[in-house]
Amino acid sequence: MTTARDTRAAFCVLPAIRRSGCLASRLSDLLRPSLIWTSIVGENTKIEWADHTWNPWVGCTKVSPGCDHCYAETWAKRAGKAAGVTWGGERRRTSPSNWRKPLQWNEESKARVETFGAARRRVFCSSLADVFDNQVPPEWREDLFELIRKTPHLDWLLLTKRIGNAPEMIKAAIANFDIGYSPDFAAWPWPNVWIGATVVNQAEADRDIPKLLQLPARVRFVSIEPMLGPIDLTDVVTRYDGGTEDHFSALFDPDDDEADTLPYLDWVICGGESGHGARPMHPDWARSLRDQCAAAGVPFLFKQWGEFTTPRVAGAPVSRLVGHERIPGHAFDDGLLVVRIGKKAAGRQLDGRTHDEFPAA
Ligand code: SF4
């Protein structure tokens, strides 16, 4: 039987990845669906872990409990016809002018690095779609990887909920490239591609992290957002037909004799859910991830609590606020009470400090 360890050690084989006028009219302009569209598909971003968000296409289908309150679907409904997509339906490729933006960012990143010694710019691709969506024409993905190859001064963060599709799709996307003249891009993994998998609970971690670790990449990361349950990254379980299980740590384990030869996660992002219908995250889930990463020396980024928090609110203990008709609350099975005070008020401090760590890539 091939174990998860064997498979991880072997790796999979991929070939050598915004006018003047009255205030009312300005507001009206700002809310025009077409401008909402233009400003969101490719721009600078407020996301804590990237400099730009860029979308080669828009549209997707829900595949996980993490998709229940999909931000992109909400955006598409708000943008209406301008978005041109119905969630779960046909995908829409973004405009040629949008596809030119990364070329400009690449030049800016190069100049910043060479002139100021600044960090390379990171591009989060795709916030309104999934790179490894099997309903996207393969030629679009070929074009995307060609763009990635042409922008070596950008780090591309490909975060997906379909990590199982990634090996074959990457292989197909770069199969016909003439990349012999560029040693850095002659073989996979490419130096400017970070591959990430979104998982929201232990079951998804057990299913998807082994696949992520099998895929060669300069940086492999997980985004645990929205965090919907506890996750132990030091005890990922692969289950085989016949009932046998293989347990392994996805975080560096100094006690493992083979630690230096095995692939591990390079980065962990954690966050609670925000927006309509948001589900609360137990503080201990986030603390545990923080502590797991600290023990393994793995960078940890705590993005946000989401809508719920535990501290005293308006001078009243949380326990007195739960059940208040104007302040929704939630009680976890262990009796811990949290109240919904909004994403901004809840903030992004964990036990009194922020965690904004990045891999040293
Ligand atoms: S994979 Fe991402 S974009 Fe697609 S439905 Fe799920 S949350 Fe939305």
Could you please describe the fold and organization of this structure?
The chain has 361 residues and is of the alpha/beta class. It has one domain. It contains eleven helices and 15 strands. The chain has helices at residues 4-10, 23-30, 33-41, 71-79, 96-116, 138-149, 166-174, 202-214, 283-296, 318-321, 343-346, and strands at residues 42-44, 52-54, 57-58, 92-93, 121-125, 154-160, 193-198, 219-224, 236-239, 245-248, 267-271, 300-304, 308-309, 329-331, 337-340. The strands form four sheets. The chain has an eight-stranded mixed β-sheet. Helix 6 (138-149) packs across helix 7. The protein is globular. Bound molecules: iron/sulfur cluster. Iron/sulfur cluster (SF4) binds next to helix 4.
Which properties best describe this structure?
361 residues, alpha/beta, 11 helices, globular, binds iron/sulfur cluster
How many individual β-strands? 15
Shape: globular
State the distance separating the first and last CA atoms. 35 Å
Query: Level of helix content?
Result: 25-40%
Map the helices and strands.
Blueprint: H1 4-10, H2 23-30, H3 33-41, E1 42-44, E2 52-54, E3 57-58, H4 71-79, E4 92-93, H5 96-116, E5 121-125, H6 138-149, E6 154-160, H7 166-174, E7 193-198, H8 202-214, E8 219-224, E9 236-239, E10 245-248, E11 267-271, H9 283-296, E12 300-304, E13 308-309, H10 318-321, E14 329-331, E15 337-340, H11 343-346
Parallel strand pairs: 2-5, 5-6, 6-7, 7-8, 8-11, 11-12
Antiparallel strand pairs: 1-2, 3-4, 9-10, 13-15, 14-15
The protein binds iron/sulfur cluster.
